[in-house]
Amino acid sequence: MKEKSVLIQDQEFISNALKLRFHPITVTEGKGCYLFDENGRSFLDLTAGWAVANIGYGQESVAEKLKEQYIKLSFTTQLSAPSQTMTELAEKLIEMTPGDFSKKVWFGHSGSDANDLISKLVPAASGRPKMIAFMGAYHGQTMGALSLSGHSAQAKFEGKGNVIKLPYPNPYRPFSGISEHLTEQTIHFMNEVFSTICPPEETAGIIVEAIQSDGGVILPPDDFLAALRQICDQHGIYLIVDEVKVGMGRTGKWFSFEHSPIIPDAVVLGKSLGGGLPISAVIGRQEILDSVTAGHMFTASGNPLCTAAAIETIRIIEEKDLISQAEKNGQYFLEGLRSLQKKYPFIGEVRGKGLVLGVEIVTDRLEKKPDPVKTSAICYRAYELGLLIYYVGIHGNVLEITPPLTISREEITEALHLLDQTLQDVAAGHVDWEQVKQFSGWA
User: Fold this and answer.
1) CATH top-level class of 6-58+321-438
2) pLDDT per residue over 353-371, tens digit each?
3) What is the CATH number of domain 73-319?
4) Is 57 a catalytic residue?
5) Run of H or E including 304
6) DSSP secondary structure letter of residue 370
7) What is the pLDDT of residues 154-210, one digit of tens each?
8) Which residue among 34, 138, 238, 380 is the active-site one?
9) Burial label, 222 (beta-carbon count in 10 A; 0-12, 13-18, 19+)
10) Is there a contact between 263 and 239 (Cβ–Cβ < 8 Å)?
11) Handedness of CA 322, 323, 325, 329 (dihedral sign)
């Protein structure tokens, strides 16, 4: 009897609630910035698995640390019997995170459970019931995290009622239709909210992404975060920055908020923290994270394997100087993408910082009408040519480029060449549209 392919097994056995598919790939191996399918074909990966594989695939030192740790101590529930890897990682994260105040660290499994903690403990610590978040934000899938989110992909779910959503200042698509003084517009909107449905004395915290990643790789105006910090200081509101996707060196600094002159009250990490192993963290004011004893616990949180992997991941980023490499290579990549923009009129905008880059696909540059169909076709055709890209955005029309931070100039040049061929083919209609329809991503 012929063995079923992974794709057939996936269709038969795996819940659609766990699927976000852009092309018919299965992965059997990964090395550096390349993934390999079950036929041995290689793909240059510009996704890093939704920005998880910051240090690339197959780092031998991580494998060695995991084996060493498993033999020494495969598991202890850190809730009741802590071990050194958890406390060592916590101390390192506190050292990395700006803020001259008493901090502590909480550990979980994903950005979702970390932002779920924010939804619970920030109101508890402040004694105030309401939270403010932003349209386009994607903070996770659990109840508290999706309640804080404002992404179109989660609109079908009902969340908690204590969260007020404000427009995020998107310079390319300003919520008012006017791009001038966008930060001032946003703060004016916030003050209207304060004076009506969300009094500041009832507001516990504001959670924000310094770059909205799943929202479409949106970079707000340079003065936006500082304006938020000022509002929070004025009213005694906590400011929380979600760095789950764009943190850990991706933007050319440890955290993307460090490009602004602010210090958050709490920072949320996930995805790339474990170098591929599931771990999340919140680094925040002690008064927040100590506000409720036994208030947000998961049996395997901070487990020895994941914390050991995170410690080694941080060491690799530091030792290989991947943060400055992300800044330099990101600029090189950005310039290459802007050269492609000049060739293809359906590229509305290219934007980004470091190695988180967005390419917005439109039907017409003047009207800026989103073109999610063409975007999906680009992802599919790129796959056929050996390049992996995903798309994001509330309109499903932004190519998101988040390769491993280990990507080289030569690999970026190769990626740009493959992307150029992809765009040329899509522009000429050389796409199997029936196949594209089967891999609709966020739809």
Assistant:
1) alpha beta
2) 999 999 999 999 999 999 9
3) 3.40.640.10
4) no
5) helix 304-319
6) B
7) 888 888 889 999 999 999 999 999 999 999 999 999 999 999 999 999 999 999 999
8) 138
9) exposed
10) no
11) positive
